Amino acid sequence: MKNITIIGAGACGVAAFAELFLSLVTKGLKDKVKITWMEKDGKWGHGLAFGTDQPGHLLNTQADLMGLYVNEPSHYVDWLDNKGGKSLDRVKGKGGLEDSYSSRQLYGRYLFEHSKSLILEAKAAGLTVELLHQKADGLQREGDNYQLLSENGDVISSDIVILALGTPKPNNFKHLLTHSNYIPFPWPSGPILEKMNQAEHIGILGSSLSAIDAVMTLVDNKYEGKISLYSPDGLVPRVQPVKNKEVARNHLTMDAIYRIRRENRRGPLVKEIFRLFRKDVEEHTGEPLDWKELDREGKDVASLLQKDIALAEEGGDPLMNVAYSLRYDSTPIWSLLSIEEKLKFMKWLGPDWGINRHGMPLPNAKKLQKLFKGNKLRVVPFFEDVAFSGKLGEFQMKIKDKPTESVQLLINATGSPGKLDEMESTLLRNMLNKGYLSPYRAGGVCVNEQILQLLSPKGGSGIYGLGHILNGQLMDVNAVWFNVKCVSRMIKDITDRLLYGDFS
Ligand SMILES: Cc1cc2nc3c(=O)[nH]c(=O)nc-3n(C[C@H](O)[C@H](O)[C@H](O)COP(=O)(O)OP(=O)(O)OC[C@H]3O[C@@H](n4cnc5c(N)ncnc54)[C@H](O)[C@@H]3O)c2cc1C
User: Fold this and answer.
1) Residue 365's domain spans which residues?
2) What CATH number is given to the structural domain containing 460?
3) Ligand 1, atom 29, residue with closest C-alpha
4) pTM of the model
5) Fewest beta carbons less than 10 Å away: which of 164, 189, 289, 361?
6) 67 within 8 A of 77, measured Cβ to Cβ
C-alpha cells in the first residue's frame, strides 16, 4: 500500500484529491493507495483564497473558469445554477451566469461541499482516506520514503507528498511587526475589523488586487475614515469587461514564437514578444498607439478608473482583450524564455501585464469609484518607505519628493511574495535547508513543468507541487483553471507510476 499525502485543502488540494480519487477508482488502484490529507486550519475546501468571511470579496475570475475538474470548466457554473444561479445575491455581474463573479465565500462553499461529498464517496468506495487537522512543519527523506513532521510532533510516513500550500504570507516590513496597529496580511479580516474604527486615516501598502480586497473589507464594514493606498508605481488593476471580446492575434502567435526560436537557435526575447503584442493591439485599435502615453505610472487613478469602467461596460479595449486572449498561451510562451528574459519581463513589463491581465471585477470598480468621488480614497505613487513614530504613535509614510504622511493603522496588502526566501513557511524553509527544494531565480521553486514533480539536489522523485510555490517557472499559478490543468497532468504521472512505474 502506497501512502500519498496532500498538504493543504484549498482549491489546489481539493482539485488534487478529486482527480486522485477519480483516477484511482477508474484505473482500479484504490486498494493500492492510502490518501492522507493534511490541513492546518482544519477546514477542508476553503484555503486562504476562498476561506474569506467577507461577502464583498469577489472572485476575480468569471465563473466558467472556476470548475474543479480539468476539461469541465463550467462545473462551478452548473453548481451555481443548481443553487439558484443569478438569483443568488452573492452572484454579481451584468452578463450570464458563466460570466458572473460570485463571492469567494460562495466558491469556498462549492469547494467545501465538494470535498465533503468526495471524502464520503471515497471512503464508501473502500479507499483509505485519513484527514489530519495538522500543520506540516518538516520533511525527512529516507531512501524512497518521506517522514512528514507535523507541528505537534506526529510523523506521517509517505511515498508521495503533494505540496498544495497556497499563498504564503510575505515576510517583508518585519520592522513593523511589533506595532499593534500594523496588520501584516489582509486575510483573515478579523484584525482589520477589530482596529479600523480606531483610525481616521488608514494606510494600505500595495495597490493591486490584494489592496482592493482590503478596501472592500473596510467599505463593506462601514469604515467612514480616509483610506490611502501606497505603492511605488501607483498602478491599480484595470476593470474586467462584462464579457471579454474574443480577439484573434495575427502577430503574437505560438507559430511566430517557435519560428523565432528555430530561426535564431535561442529562446524569444521580451522585446520581440512585446513588439508582436503591440502589433496585435494596434491592429485591433486600427491605428498606431502612443505607448508612452499609455504608461500609467503616477497618473490620476480616479480618472483612469472612470475610463476603465466605461471600457469594461463596452467589452474592454484591445490592450486588455489581447492580454486576455493570451490566457492559454502565456505559460507556453513563458516557459520558452530564459531566466534572464523572465527577470527582464518581470521588471519591465510585469506591472503593466498584471493590471491588464488580472483586472478587478466591475462591481468592485464601481465601489472604488464611489470612494474616489467621496474623497474617501486616494492612491499615492512613488512610495519609498515606512517607519513608526513612537512620539506621534503613527506610521510615517515616506514618498519620493513629497512631504511624509501619517496614518494611524497600516495594512500590508503587498500580496504574495514571489521569491522562496520571502515566503513565511516553516515547511518550505525546512525543505530548502535540506536540499529538498531548489529556488528558481525568477521566483518559487524548480519544477518539472509537465508532471509538477519538484526538482532538487536531494528531494528525490516523490515530491510534487501546485499553486503559488511554482510562480517563477509557471505563469498563471494564481488561477484555479490553470492549477486544475496542472493537477490533471500530475495525477496522471502518479497513477502511471502506480500502474507501470516504480510504484507498481
Ligand atoms: C485573496 C486571493 C484571492 C484569489 N482569488 C482568485 C480568484 O478569484 N480566482 C482564481 O482563479 N484564483 C484566485 N486566487 C489565486 C489562488 O491562489 C489560486 O486560485 C489557488 O488555486 C488557490 O488555491 P491553493 O490551494 O493554492 O491555495 P490556498 O487557498 O491558499 O490553500 C492552501 C491551504 O494549505 C494550507 N496549508 C498551508 N501550509 C500548510 C502546512 N504547512 N500544513 C498544513 N496545511 C497547510 C492552508 O491552511 C490553506 O488552507 C486568489 C488568491 C488569493 C490569495
Assistant:
1) 170-237+361-412
2) 3.50.50.60
3) 47
4) 0.95
5) 289
6) yes
Instruction: Tell me the CA end-to-end span of the chain in Å, nearest whole number.
Output: 10
Ligand 1 first shell, C-beta below 6 A = 7-13, 38-41, 47-50, 59-61, 135-136, 164-167, 187, 213, 427, 467-468, 478-480, 483
Q: Which pLDDT tens digit goes with each residue over 338-373? A: 999 999 999 999 999 999 999 999 999 999 999 999
Q: How many C-beta atoms lie closer than 10 Å to residue 111's C-beta? A: 28
Region of 484 (left: φ > 0; alpha: ψ -120 to 50; beta: rest) is alpha
- Interval 420-438: pLDDT, tens: 999 999 999 999 999 999 9
Distance (Å) from CA 479 to ligand 1 centroid: 10
The answer to whether 464 touches 453, Cβ cutoff 8 Å, is yes
Mutational test site, ligand 1, from 480, 482, 490, max ligand atoms within 8 Å of CB:
480
User: Grid coordinates in use for 131?
Assistant: 484527514
H-helix or E-strand containing 26?
helix 11-26
CA distances from 313 to 242, 296, 372 (A): 6, 21, 19
Q: Which distant-in-sequence residues (6+ apart) come within 8 Å of 213 by Cβ? A: 52, 54, 57, 186, 187, 413
